[in-house]
Amino acid sequence: DVKVTQSSRYLVKRTGEKVFLECVQDMDHENMFWYRQDPGLGLRLIYFSYDVKMKEKGDIPEGYSVSREKKERFSLILESASTNQTSMYLCASSFTDRNSYEQYFGPGTRLTVT
Amino acid sequence: DAKTTQPTSMDCAEGRAANLPCNHSTISGNEYVYWYRQIHSQGPQYIIHGLKNNETNEMASLIITEDRKSSTLILPHATLRDTAVYYCIVSYSGGGADGLTFGKGTHLIIQP
Description:
The structure holds 2 protein chains of 2 kinds. Chain A is mostly beta strands. Chain A has strands spanning 4-6, 10-13, 19-25, 31-38, 42-49, 56-57, 65-70, 73-78, 87-94, 104-105, 109-113. Chain A has no helices and 11 strands. In chain A, a hairpin with a 3-residue loop joins strand 4 and strand 5. By secondary structure, chain B is mainly β.
Protein backbone atom coordinates (compact mmCIF):
# COMPACT_ATOMS: atom_id res chain seq x y z
CA ASP A 1 0.00 0.00 0.00
CA VAL A 2 1.11 3.50 -0.79
CA LYS A 3 1.80 5.41 2.34
CA VAL A 4 1.96 9.16 2.73
CA THR A 5 2.78 10.21 6.27
CA GLN A 6 2.76 13.63 7.86
CA SER A 7 4.85 14.48 10.89
CA SER A 8 2.02 15.55 13.18
CA ARG A 9 -1.77 15.20 13.27
CA TYR A 10 -2.18 18.25 15.50
CA LEU A 11 0.14 21.20 16.02
CA VAL A 12 -0.23 24.40 18.04
CA LYS A 13 2.15 27.28 17.39
CA ARG A 14 2.39 30.92 18.37
CA THR A 15 2.19 33.88 16.02
CA GLY A 16 5.60 34.66 14.56
CA GLU A 17 7.08 31.20 15.06
CA LYS A 18 8.75 29.35 12.21
CA VAL A 19 6.80 26.17 11.49
CA PHE A 20 7.90 23.07 9.60
CA LEU A 21 5.38 20.54 8.30
CA GLU A 22 6.96 17.35 7.04
CA CYS A 23 5.60 14.85 4.52
CA VAL A 24 7.14 11.53 3.54
CA GLN A 25 5.98 9.07 0.87
CA ASP A 26 7.26 5.55 0.37
CA MET A 27 6.28 4.84 -3.25
CA ASP A 28 9.07 6.61 -5.13
CA HIS A 29 6.60 9.18 -6.51
CA GLU A 30 8.05 12.05 -8.51
CA ASN A 31 5.34 14.57 -7.65
CA MET A 32 4.45 15.91 -4.24
CA PHE A 33 1.88 18.52 -3.25
CA TRP A 34 0.83 20.66 -0.31
CA TYR A 35 -2.81 21.75 0.07
CA ARG A 36 -4.69 23.55 2.81
CA GLN A 37 -8.32 22.89 3.61
CA ASP A 38 -10.64 25.42 5.19
CA PRO A 39 -14.39 25.20 5.85
CA GLY A 40 -16.38 26.51 2.90
CA LEU A 41 -13.29 26.87 0.70
CA GLY A 42 -12.41 23.27 -0.13
CA LEU A 43 -8.82 22.23 -0.75
CA ARG A 44 -6.46 24.81 -2.21
CA LEU A 45 -3.03 24.08 -3.67
CA ILE A 46 -0.12 25.86 -1.96
CA TYR A 47 2.97 24.42 -3.66
CA PHE A 48 3.97 21.36 -5.59
CA SER A 49 7.17 19.70 -6.71
CA TYR A 50 7.78 17.39 -9.66
CA ASP A 51 11.38 16.52 -8.82
CA VAL A 52 14.03 16.88 -6.17
CA LYS A 53 14.96 20.52 -5.61
CA MET A 54 12.18 21.65 -7.97
CA LYS A 55 9.14 23.57 -6.82
CA GLU A 56 6.17 25.31 -8.37
CA LYS A 57 3.74 27.78 -6.84
CA GLY A 58 0.15 26.73 -6.54
CA ASP A 59 -2.88 28.94 -6.08
CA ILE A 60 -2.04 30.37 -2.62
CA PRO A 61 1.75 30.36 -2.05
CA GLU A 62 1.95 33.63 -0.12
CA GLY A 63 3.35 33.17 3.36
CA TYR A 64 4.72 29.70 2.62
CA SER A 65 7.87 28.13 1.25
CA VAL A 66 8.82 24.53 0.54
CA SER A 67 11.85 22.31 0.44
CA ARG A 68 12.47 19.04 -1.39
CA GLU A 69 16.01 17.80 -0.78
CA LYS A 70 15.15 14.12 -1.14
CA LYS A 71 12.63 12.45 -3.42
CA GLU A 72 10.58 10.99 -0.61
CA ARG A 73 10.31 14.11 1.55
CA PHE A 74 8.52 17.41 0.97
CA SER A 75 8.49 20.07 3.64
CA LEU A 76 6.16 23.05 4.00
CA ILE A 77 7.59 26.02 5.87
CA LEU A 78 5.74 28.89 7.47
CA GLU A 79 8.49 31.47 7.99
CA SER A 80 6.47 33.53 10.46
CA ALA A 81 3.20 31.89 11.36
CA SER A 82 0.07 34.03 11.47
CA THR A 83 -3.41 33.31 12.78
CA ASN A 84 -4.84 33.22 9.24
CA GLN A 85 -2.65 30.18 8.60
CA THR A 86 -4.67 28.15 11.07
CA SER A 87 -5.92 25.34 8.87
CA MET A 88 -5.80 21.66 7.93
CA TYR A 89 -2.73 20.95 5.81
CA LEU A 90 -2.74 17.97 3.46
CA CYS A 91 0.19 16.46 1.61
CA ALA A 92 -0.20 14.31 -1.51
CA SER A 93 2.04 12.46 -3.94
CA SER A 94 1.73 10.90 -7.41
CA PHE A 95 3.62 9.44 -10.34
CA THR A 96 4.40 11.49 -13.42
CA ASP A 97 3.62 8.55 -15.72
CA ARG A 98 0.69 9.59 -17.91
CA ASN A 99 -0.99 6.25 -17.25
CA SER A 100 -1.09 7.00 -13.55
CA TYR A 101 -4.02 9.14 -12.49
CA GLU A 102 -4.21 9.04 -8.74
CA GLN A 103 -2.96 11.39 -6.08
CA TYR A 104 -2.36 9.76 -2.70
CA PHE A 105 -3.07 11.89 0.33
CA GLY A 106 -1.71 11.85 3.85
CA PRO A 107 -3.96 12.08 6.93
CA GLY A 108 -3.45 15.82 7.35
CA THR A 109 -1.97 18.11 10.00
CA ARG A 110 -4.36 20.40 11.84
CA LEU A 111 -2.35 23.53 12.63
CA THR A 112 -3.57 26.11 15.10
CA VAL A 113 -1.71 29.43 15.32
CA THR A 114 -2.50 31.43 18.46
CA ASP B 1 -9.54 23.87 -15.01
CA ALA B 2 -13.29 23.84 -15.59
CA LYS B 3 -15.64 24.51 -12.74
CA THR B 4 -17.95 21.85 -11.34
CA THR B 5 -21.31 22.11 -9.59
CA GLN B 6 -22.48 19.53 -7.08
CA PRO B 7 -25.36 19.39 -4.60
CA THR B 8 -24.29 20.36 -1.10
CA SER B 9 -25.67 17.23 0.55
CA MET B 10 -27.53 14.02 -0.17
CA ASP B 11 -28.99 11.15 1.84
CA CYS B 12 -29.13 7.53 0.80
CA ALA B 13 -30.42 4.41 2.56
CA GLU B 14 -27.92 1.71 3.40
CA GLY B 15 -27.88 -1.02 0.76
CA ARG B 16 -29.29 1.23 -1.93
CA ALA B 17 -27.42 2.72 -4.86
CA ALA B 18 -26.12 6.22 -4.23
CA ASN B 19 -26.14 8.43 -7.32
CA LEU B 20 -24.09 11.61 -7.04
CA PRO B 21 -24.49 14.14 -9.86
CA CYS B 22 -21.95 16.65 -11.11
CA ASN B 23 -22.29 19.40 -13.70
CA HIS B 24 -19.22 20.49 -15.64
CA SER B 25 -20.73 22.35 -18.59
CA THR B 26 -17.49 24.18 -19.53
CA ILE B 27 -15.32 21.07 -19.67
CA SER B 28 -12.93 21.01 -22.60
CA GLY B 29 -12.25 18.07 -24.89
CA ASN B 30 -9.09 16.82 -23.20
CA GLU B 31 -10.14 17.29 -19.59
CA TYR B 32 -10.78 14.24 -17.44
CA VAL B 33 -13.49 13.87 -14.81
CA TYR B 34 -12.13 12.67 -11.46
CA TRP B 35 -13.95 11.68 -8.31
CA TYR B 36 -12.39 11.68 -4.86
CA ARG B 37 -13.96 11.28 -1.44
CA GLN B 38 -12.95 12.42 2.01
CA ILE B 39 -14.07 10.54 5.07
CA HIS B 40 -14.12 12.61 8.25
CA SER B 41 -10.63 13.30 9.67
CA GLN B 42 -8.86 11.60 6.76
CA GLY B 43 -7.17 12.80 3.57
CA PRO B 44 -9.05 12.55 0.25
CA GLN B 45 -9.11 9.19 -1.49
CA TYR B 46 -9.24 8.63 -5.25
CA ILE B 47 -12.33 6.76 -6.47
CA ILE B 48 -12.47 6.77 -10.25
CA HIS B 49 -11.87 8.88 -13.34
CA GLY B 50 -13.00 9.02 -16.98
CA LEU B 51 -12.65 10.97 -20.20
CA LYS B 52 -15.56 10.03 -22.49
CA ASN B 53 -16.59 6.45 -21.78
CA ASN B 54 -18.37 5.12 -18.74
CA GLU B 55 -16.02 3.51 -16.25
CA THR B 56 -16.38 0.95 -13.48
CA ASN B 57 -14.02 -0.28 -10.82
CA GLU B 58 -14.32 -2.11 -7.52
CA MET B 59 -15.52 1.02 -5.73
CA ALA B 60 -17.92 2.72 -8.11
CA SER B 61 -19.20 3.43 -11.61
CA LEU B 62 -18.86 6.69 -13.49
CA ILE B 63 -21.43 7.65 -16.08
CA ILE B 64 -20.50 10.58 -18.35
CA THR B 65 -23.13 12.08 -20.65
CA GLU B 66 -22.47 12.08 -24.37
CA ASP B 67 -21.92 15.85 -24.45
CA ARG B 68 -19.62 15.48 -21.38
CA LYS B 69 -21.35 18.35 -19.62
CA SER B 70 -22.34 16.25 -16.64
CA SER B 71 -21.55 12.98 -14.92
CA THR B 72 -22.88 10.71 -12.19
CA LEU B 73 -20.92 8.70 -9.67
CA ILE B 74 -22.73 5.54 -8.63
CA LEU B 75 -21.99 3.60 -5.45
CA PRO B 76 -23.97 0.44 -6.17
CA HIS B 77 -24.64 -0.78 -2.62
CA ALA B 78 -23.96 2.02 -0.18
CA THR B 79 -22.76 1.18 3.33
CA LEU B 80 -22.41 3.36 6.41
CA ARG B 81 -18.67 3.58 5.68
CA ASP B 82 -19.48 5.43 2.45
CA THR B 83 -20.60 8.48 4.44
CA ALA B 84 -18.14 11.14 3.26
CA VAL B 85 -17.72 14.29 1.21
CA TYR B 86 -17.48 13.43 -2.50
CA TYR B 87 -15.59 15.73 -4.84
CA CYS B 88 -16.04 15.93 -8.60
CA ILE B 89 -12.99 17.47 -10.30
CA VAL B 90 -12.09 18.15 -13.91
CA SER B 91 -8.45 18.34 -14.86
CA TYR B 92 -6.13 18.14 -17.85
CA SER B 93 -3.73 15.96 -15.93
CA GLY B 94 -3.37 12.42 -17.13
CA GLY B 95 -0.74 11.59 -14.60
CA GLY B 96 -1.76 13.23 -11.40
CA ALA B 97 1.13 15.59 -12.05
CA ASP B 98 -0.81 18.78 -11.57
CA GLY B 99 -2.53 20.11 -8.53
CA LEU B 100 -6.21 19.35 -8.35
CA THR B 101 -8.87 21.98 -7.69
CA PHE B 102 -11.29 20.69 -5.08
CA GLY B 103 -14.62 22.48 -4.73
CA LYS B 104 -17.00 22.07 -1.81
CA GLY B 105 -18.21 18.63 -2.83
CA THR B 106 -21.34 16.71 -1.84
CA HIS B 107 -21.75 15.50 1.71
CA LEU B 108 -23.27 12.03 1.30
CA ILE B 109 -24.93 10.62 4.38
CA ILE B 110 -25.82 6.93 4.38
CA GLN B 111 -28.78 6.27 6.64
CA PRO B 112 -29.11 2.92 8.44
